Amino acid sequence: MKLELLVSILRERRFLVTAILSLLVYLVLYLAAMQYLTVAQGGTGPFISLQIVPDWQALVFRQRAPFLFEPVAALRFGPLLLFVSIPNLALGFVLGLLVGANFAVSYYGFRTLGMRGARGVHALIGTIPALISGAACCVPTLILVIGLQLTATLAAVWSMLVPISAALLVISLWWSLHRMAAEPVCDIASRPVNARARRSEP
Amino acid sequence: MKNTALAAIVLIGSPVAWSNPGSASDVSTLWSHSVRVAQAAPARSTVPAAEEDEFLSLLEKNIVSGGPPKDGIPAVDDPQYTSAGEADQWLVPEDIVFGIDYEGFVAAYPQRILVWHEIANELVDGEQLSITYCPLTGTAIGFKGNLARETPSTFGVSGRLVNSNLIMYDRATDSLWPQIPGKAIAGSLRATRLDEFPVAWTTWEQWKEKHPNTRVLSQQTGFLRNYSSNRDPYGSYLENDKGYYESERLLFPPITEDRQLHPKAVVVGFRDRSGNAAAIAKDRLRQEKQIEVQLGGRTVVVTYDPELDFHSAAFKDTAEWINAFDAMWFAWKAFYPDTQLLQ
């Protein structure tokens, strides 16, 4: 039921575009937070280059930190440097799908059902833990910025940020769809697009 | 259990007699000749066993996870090198390098590479050496892999820390070795201390000037990291904003805290095999050039080398080499709470 609603929302172009853009923006932020997408300093090589580590098969699933895997290739495109870690790309893509779905559903709720308030913020909140977890490449330097000292408890929480983020995004999406499914009519085609019209109903 | 393990360890030789690479007052001799170090197995400390056991247990209890799993920070096990000329294309003069001149093997290990690996294992004339660097305590120390007679080993990064200091593990016995004391705190080699060799913390410009034919650790480490960046995950030695390296904040609480100096102030620390320790503020050594310190009833002469902005140390009576290395004050004090401090 809820999945059908999600699919029907994504059938409309504007919501699908919202989902795809959100996914792409999230993926870029996720990779940048891990420093897997960065600006290369110096170097005199070609504009585009690809470097693959010789022993990539042995490294592809090797963890550097919880939910952070060894890059097996480096793609340089001008000043941009992308470290390719296949598990992290897959992880970022899955989280990005959830982020995209959240934004599309929030946008749908706002435009079609006239839902306002904190609903649209759900998706943002869900992304934060995963972005923070990306900074855990070697040591959580954000901790230093925040001014805390790393305790065993905090370290354990830190290592769980990716699953926490995924859980938050799933809950947020499920809750939004649940609320929308409870609306009197949830067929997109029959809904008035004008939010004001929806709010003026008794 | 620990006492049993202690009892089971056989004393493996007398304390190592370090041969002197040059007189204590002649650092240029020290760094212009290959360092000769006795080929002996590591020795046990002469600190009273109960006291030592208690302190090792305290260190063991204070082990924390640094975040990465075992080998999550990968040691460089097959180092490749480039020439100084090639290295000039990607190193700037101010780059920190860790230089070794051991038995004719002259090499520089750039901080911007080792910060991602913390350990480089190298075989020199059949002898297993490890160049180790802990970013959180600002310490670069050379260890020999002769854990026991005819038991050479390489080292890896355990992913754990004590007093913010790197804890290495040896691949022969899996014992845990905090870098600063160089002594095992857990495992079958508990209380054994590693042999060391000199590693100079200097700049690329200074090292190259002194060793124009040096080899330099290559960026081909077998792993992909952003070696080109002037910033590492902790901060930067090349930019005005040095991040962790100058912040008063620590990431992990040390066992002992002391505010006589800024926590990240650089001191030259040295300790004997009896556990006596002393630290000299680096700026004071720069100023005075040579300082004598009493350590366990013997005089240690520490001599500044302006060519490398580094130093050497030796016992005055025998000219026996003693490892004196740069360290952040908070870390030195945490490992050696009774240390002398010459501010």
Q: Would you give an account of this structure?
A:
The complex is a heterodimer of chains A (202) and B (343). Chain A is of the alpha+beta class and 202 residues long. Chain A is built from 9 helices and 6 strands. In chain A, the strands form 2 sheets. Chain A has a 4-stranded antiparallel sheet. In chain A, strands 3-4 form a two-stranded antiparallel sheet. Chain A is globular and about 55 Å long. Chain A starts with a helix and ends with a helix. Residues 136-140 and 189-202 of chain A have low confidence and may be disordered. By secondary structure, chain B is of the alpha+beta class. Chain B has helices at residues 2-8, 27-32, 49-61, 84-87, 111-114, 204-210, 282-288, 329-335, and strands at 64-65, 81-83, 96-102, 105-110, 119-124, 127-134, 139-144, 146-148, 151-152, 155-162, 165-170, 176-178, 196-197, 200-203, 215-217, 266-271, 277-281, 290-295, 298-305, 310-315, 324-328, 340-342. In chain B, the strands form 6 sheets. In chain B, strands 2-15-4-3-14 form a 5-stranded mixed sheet. A 4-stranded antiparallel sheet of chain B has the order 1-10-11-12, with no helix packed on it. The chains are: A alpha+beta (202), B alpha+beta (343). Chain A binds chain B through residues 35, 38, 40-44, 51, 53-55, 59, 62-66, 70-74, 81, 83, 136-141, 143-144, 147, 149-152, 155, 158-159, and chain B through 64-69, 71-74, 89-90, 116, 136, 222-224, 226, 228-230, 233-234, 243-244, 247, 249-253.
